[in-house]
TrEMBL record:
Residues 10-249 form the Glucosamine/galactosamine-6-phosphate isomerase domain. CDD domains: 6PGL (cd01400). It catalyses: 6-phospho-D-glucono-1,5-lactone + H2O = 6-phospho-D-gluconate + H(+). Pathway: Carbohydrate degradation; pentose phosphate pathway; D-ribulose 5-phosphate from D-glucose 6-phosphate (oxidative stage): step 2/3. Its EC number is 3.1.1.31. Keywords: Hydrolase. Hydrolysis of 6-phosphogluconolactone to 6-phosphogluconate. It is an enzyme of class 3 (hydrolase). This is 6-phosphogluconolactonase. PANTHER family: 6-PHOSPHOGLUCONOLACTONASE (PTHR11054).
Amino acid sequence: MSGPEVVTLPDDEAVAAEGASRLLAALREAQAARGVASVVLTGGGIGIAMLEAVAASADRDSVDWSAVEVFWGDERFVPAGDAERNDAQARAALLDRVDVDPARVHPMASSTPGPSALESEDSADPDAGAEAYAQVLTEAAARLGEGVPGIPAFDVLLAGCGPEGHTLSIFPDSPAVHATAAGVVAVRDCPKPPPTRISLTLAAARSAREVWLVATGPGKAEALGKAAHGAGEVEIPLAGLAGSERTMWLLDREAAGQL
Ligand SMILES: O=C1O[C@H](COP(=O)(O)O)[C@@H](O)[C@H](O)[C@H]1O
């Protein structure tokens, strides 16, 4: 696997603005090529700031939002609408402010018990939620085209990371980082709260055409530096992120400090 393309910017505001501008361009290009664009969203401070920058952009409506399929790379398994949920944060930052088609927005299950584990309906069981999302992805792969088996070839997958090297909700040397056969997993006992989550695996993330890691601040520098210097994905899961066509790290100077 060749190394990522690294884009280093002065600060988090610049990362959010550059990421927003590049995301709008990528979605436009995907729509020009394939009619419908697909994006996998991330949570995290800079991931949500980037969505706010998309919403504030003068170019926001250069994308046909009704023809964007929206997925999530990971989710906190807490009640629907909880402010800790990545989807709740993404809706407030962007999705409630553009003309997305609700049928094309695919959140992961919440912990609110629901009648079934289909589509994005909710479940008291994160394993059922993970299975339901795997089914959502299989159906989407049939519509959008497949990257790895059963997973769409997403146009862009956005990911954040933590100081210990986690990405999505895949933590170092956790069961999820070893779950190479699955596309979606339930994650328990996360060192970072909330402890229960649902996540794409690294193998599923690699189904995307483009994978963009967005990270800012000095706390991320050591993990990024270790990945850049050859650490494996079991030790530093973000090292396992790669797109089939492009892998890009969008960083500020502090996060890039140990590359
Ligand atoms: O818990 C999570 O954390 C990471 C990074 O968050 P940050 O606030 O330190 O940038 C995020 O990428 C992930 O989606 C999220 O669930």
